[in-house]
């Protein structure tokens, strides 16, 4: 099992931390500010989740997941280039501007993507984009949807994508639900799909869904 650091302790990061800890991985949950207590948190079921600040999290784990807000992630993670060097960075966020109701309204990087910008800013890090085309509960419980969801992978390193696919399997994703789109430039396509999300949410509320391929 792997040592995984998750940057971002909100609903996305916390959900991934709990599910991956339950699957047997060693998890460090990275907070923007140093947590008040560093004692193990049993929210991961039988496995404990360690808490730390984001720099310590990036420095002390083998694989790092970015679950921080996408509109500020590039600036935040660029300062961690030393800690992230030589590691796999799995980016699950979307870089968007928001409308008055708080839902995505536009892309921060039209004609590009957050994942591409991260790979350019962190050349010694292997960036993989995935899990950014669904409402957050689907990330850790894909089988609960009535139709199979699709988890897309984008990245320049095939080994890093294989590692990411293995973690998806630990979260309940079947191999046939995972679609490898190709290199990191393909992330601009999946990041653009987030523009569908606000329209779906306004009509149906926070019912779990994913933007998936039908075959």
TrEMBL record:
Q: Which domain of life is it from?
A: Bacteria
Task: Keywords in alphabetical order, please.
Answer: Oxidoreductase
Would the keyword Chloroplast be found if you checked this record's keyword annotation?
no
Q: What Pfam families is this protein classified in?
A: F420_oxidored (PF03807)
Using the record's annotation, list all stretches that form the Pyrroline-5-carboxylate reductase catalytic N-terminal domain.
Answer: 4-94
User: Mind telling me which SUPFAM superfamilies this protein's record contains?
Assistant: NAD(P)-binding Rossmann-fold domains
Q: Quick check: keyword RNA-binding in the entry?
A: no
The protein in question is named NADP oxidoreductase
